[in-house]
Amino acid sequence: LKEENASLRSKINKLQIFSETQADKLRKLERKLEENKIKEEKEAQDLEAMVQHVEQNLQLMTKRAVKAENNATKLKQENALLQVQLKNYKTENEVLRSGQSASLAAVKQNADLALRNLLTVLTNSRSSIKQLVSGAESLQLVADLLKSIDRISEVSEDGQ
């Protein structure tokens, strides 16, 4: 009976040690689970902050693109007006050449001024068009980024 008691005590001790080991493992796993929850919450907050930042950038780029487009339209109109003026100056120049050589210098000066204005407008319109194209490319990049964020969200939801 003593041997049996000793054997049972030994088994009880072993079971208690095993139980304590399992309890330690359980506590460690619970801590790790809590750490993972905190980490996931932080990642979700970071992702939300990034999405908000991207949305703000998208709004800003949209405003810039609209402004550039409006500027390009304005410059095209100004360009057309200057081309009409240039044509009028050329016509006036031809009339003056045939009839009044004294006014030729003034007409030439007007034509040169119109030509300089036209070149300035052309240069500015090219710059605005380049800005508009750059803005459109940026918007495409942001749209692609937002698509990939959606895919990341879908993958994390599937993984849970």
From TrEMBL:
**Where would one find coiled-coil regions in this protein?**
19-92
The question of whether Coiled coil is a record keyword is answered with: yes
InterPro entries membership: ENTR1 (IPR026757)
Enumerate the Gene Ontology biological process terms. positive regulation of cilium assembly; positive regulation of protein localization to cilium; regulation of cytokinesis
Name the GO cellular-component terms. centrosome; ciliary basal body; early endosome; midbody; recycling endosome
Top-level taxon of the source organism: Eukaryota
Signal peptide per UniProt: none
Alphabetized, the UniProt keywords read:
Coiled coil
The record's comment on protein family reads: Belongs to the ENTR1 family.
Protein name as it appears in the record: Endosome-associated-trafficking regulator 1
Q: What is the lineage of its organism?
A: Eukaryota, Metazoa, Chordata, Craniata, Vertebrata
